[in-house]
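Table S7 (text form). Paired inputs.
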Amino acid sequence: MLANRTIAVSAVALAALALASCGGQQGASRDQVRAVGSSTVYPFAKAVAESLAKSDATIKAPIIESTGTGAGMKLFCGGVGPQHPDIEDASRRMKKSEFDDCQKNGVKEITEIQVGLDGVAFAEAKGGPGIALTPLDVYKALAKAPFGKPNTAKTWKDVNPAYPDEAILVYGPPSTSGTRDAFKELILVKGCETDPAMKALKDTDKDKHDAVCGEVREDGAYVDAGENDNLIVQKIEANTKALGIFGYSYLEQNSDKLKGLTMSGVTPTYETISDFTYPGARPLYIYVKKAHLKAIPGLQAYVTEWSKLWSKGGVLAKAGMVVAPDAVLAASAKAASELPVLDGAQLK
């Protein structure tokens, strides 16, 4: 018994030394996994951490932090060593610029694993008017400078005569959020590019295109609610004239209080997100720092635990995650097992 305990302690000590060596900080170490990133992925990452802790008492439950995808990428790509996280949870794919930052800071080997699907959902309280949204009307309502001109719309009726004469008030994610990035890419830009001139602008002046098509107004019509999707739920539940933007799982978990709004005639549901007929459907990812695999106890086990829980009818599906198609799940399971290195060529 004493011999087994000595071996276990020695293994942890060796892991600590390996990680300290990686980070260039002698004596610094960590004996549990640390993941940062998306508020959308956060509840799923917590569920996986709790499942792992229950299934293996020798592994300390991973630390999961809701920082937002963008802020999490900065932490993840900051370097190798105990002061840097092992996993980045992301509600959109890693950007090429983030990958380059990782490489520059010595984070050379990264594995990308798609863990499921989600949707950028628009919702209101049960007593709301039920606005039938389109990307074009959302763009006109929330863009800082729709089609290059200052946004003067005060009410939804200003945007579309068919909409109610109510002030535009939308609670949504901050600029550090992957949900905000997905909202920009899947909704705002699509609305903006209904104008051929705006679509052409992408090829002639990308920075201007990004500003005109993707910047959100800052005059109070759009309210940054921080990295707390539950706060958005509370805000719109309390105000039937307000709308909210967050991950679909939060809508599903609060279906007794809220209702999802259609986008181009499609309601956000498990089925419409899984088959991508809903315009706001998007994949969810985790990124693994391979340099920490041998140094951090439980890192490989935590990654493996994801693959045990993401099936149809599994723990994550019950928590609100939309399960990815079978082919994607098979590829993800292989990635979780073999941990291939991302080369960055596919990133934008």
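Next pair, protein 2 of 2.
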Amino acid sequence: MRKILVTGGTNFVSRFTAEYFVKNGDEVYVLNRGSREQVEGVTLIQADRFNLTDELKDIRFDAVLDVCAYSGDHVNALLDALDEFGDFILISSSAVYPETNPQPFTEEQELGANSIWGDYGANKIAAEKALTERVPEAYILRPPYLYGKYETIYRAPFVFDCALADRRFYIPESDRWLQFFNVRDLCRFMDILLTEHPENRVFNVGNPEMISVKEWAELCYAAAGKEPVLVRVDDSFTVRDYFPFHPYHYYLDVSKQQALMPEVTELGEGIKEEFDWYVEEKPEIFRRDYMGFIDREYSADSE
């Protein structure tokens, strides 16, 4: 039984990660403020990473899975509080690649500012730098859009709400190409790293194929047993007013991941699983007012 520390453990990716490794038979510790419901079977270390004293010093973790680091300060605060540990995995982001880089983005490309993601991407670069300077043998994962059970970002849940209400779905006139990765596959890949310890330390992770906005919307509606009526919106409108993705597409080369984990969750299957969870659990989600914008701007069409 491995002792695994998961930062967070109560929200989307970190919650799924904690649950996954508990079910895997590992002894899972979670580091969070204790303000939300905890995953059954974890050991809670109730603290803020910036106010840690000796809470982690007496535990030798076989692995640290830092799901919630968004800056170099986040990484350094955790490392300062740890004593001995085995593996360290940081969940970074594909936002570390400038959108001007040639695509598909590869792990060897130079990192830099991304005008779409702004400070988020810059801070993820700083987190990676802080980690590699202090723990050069750590693993860094760069996913595209993550989805799946426990999602709290109003992306697929927004489309589910539209489907359940039999609303038309509005998409940009110009196609956007999206790349996804199921949160379960992310956990499966972390488990592979902890087991096989490959020499490579940085991995793009994701489904190898991209999907159009139209196809993604159709899959989300299909999960609800519906077929969408799609309405194309002129590109002069600000896409983020009515649609849950930035006006940006990118393509990650995930061949290094595929060499270790050839099979990933089929997107339609994963979306259906998320839909079933969403309908059953009715989770609390911050819902951006996409529908309100659509109703104001396209009142004649939004029924």
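The longest strand covers residues 85-91.
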